[in-house]
Amino acid sequence: MDCLYWVKRDSYLPIGSHGLKAVTKAKLRYNPVEVDPEEICKMAHDLPQTLSNYAISDAVATYYLYTSYVHPFIYALCTIIPMKPDEVLRKGSGTLCESLLMTKAFIAEIIFPNKQKLEAQKFTKAGNLLENETYVGGHVEAIESGIFRADLKYRFKIDEKTVDKLLRDFEKALVYTLKAEHKKELVEVTNYPELNGFVRNSLEQFKENVYKSEYPVIYHLDVAAMYPNIMLTNKLQVKRTKTQPPSIVDESVCASCDFNLPFKKCQRQMKWIWRGDFCNC
């Protein structure tokens, strides 16, 4: 069971490759013994040794998969996350990130809120029973759905308004990068005009050719564990104060807060959305 949970959550194998045979080929690099069901009875009489090898092949593959991947994985996570081995494998990635953040908050002496427990039954204002609801948080928009491959060219359409905005702001971004990240003044950079011209020419080429056919660069962004931990992460960004305001508050809470200062980063305005599924009957 530990191997199964590890394969589903942490092996990064495709959905159709979660079977023991496929995992053995991908992770252990050997082909397990396979026998057609029609030949089992005949093989029991003619080739009993081969059939016995097939009978224990699954157990052998499971053992080596556990000792090679699952057990070191559990041990490594348990050294940094205060959870039992079963919970480390079976909890979601958001819960694991939250526990890790709480550990860091405890070390930094930062007060963090207790984990909220959802009510067993909740109803809408109209009296309908809620079947499922999301936490109040950010939402992810799927701009375009489909199957994308890095080895096939894809037709892109460049947004001209975005390019115009980049043309207006890229010089400020260059200066900020030099001063804030590289700690250098503009006069110290000898090839700044060449870099400036290269960026400007590249952006202008996008405007001239709005439609481009290129090989895409595919990134995988795991947002499942992102939003539940935004609030605690914001608290950990400021380590000088032991008590910090909650991340989701209204104006009245901010007005009475001791840390209500204009330069505080906790006052970032964010758009939150709630979604719920309810029974109409």
From TrEMBL:
Its cofactor is [4Fe-4S] cluster. Belongs to the DNA polymerase type-B family. InterPro entries: DNA/RNA_pol_sf, POL2, RNaseH-like_sf, RNaseH_sf. It catalyses: DNA(n) + a 2'-deoxyribonucleoside 5'-triphosphate = DNA(n+1) + diphosphate. Signal peptide: none annotated. SUPFAM superfamilies: DNA/RNA polymerases, Ribonuclease H-like. The keyword Zinc applies. The keyword 4Fe-4S applies. This is DNA polymerase epsilon catalytic subunit. Its EC number is 2.7.7.7. GO terms for cellular component: epsilon DNA polymerase complex. GO terms for biological process: base-excision repair, gap-filling; DNA replication proofreading; leading strand elongation; mitotic cell cycle; nucleotide-excision repair, DNA gap filling. PANTHER family: DNA POLYMERASE EPSILON CATALYTIC SUBUNIT A. Keywords: 4Fe-4S, DNA replication, DNA-binding, DNA-directed DNA polymerase, Iron, Iron-sulfur, Metal-binding, Nucleotidyltransferase, Nucleus, Transferase, Zinc, Zinc-finger. It is found in: Nucleus. DNA polymerase II participates in chromosomal DNA replication. One of its GO terms (molecular function) is DNA-directed DNA polymerase activity. Its main location: nucleus.
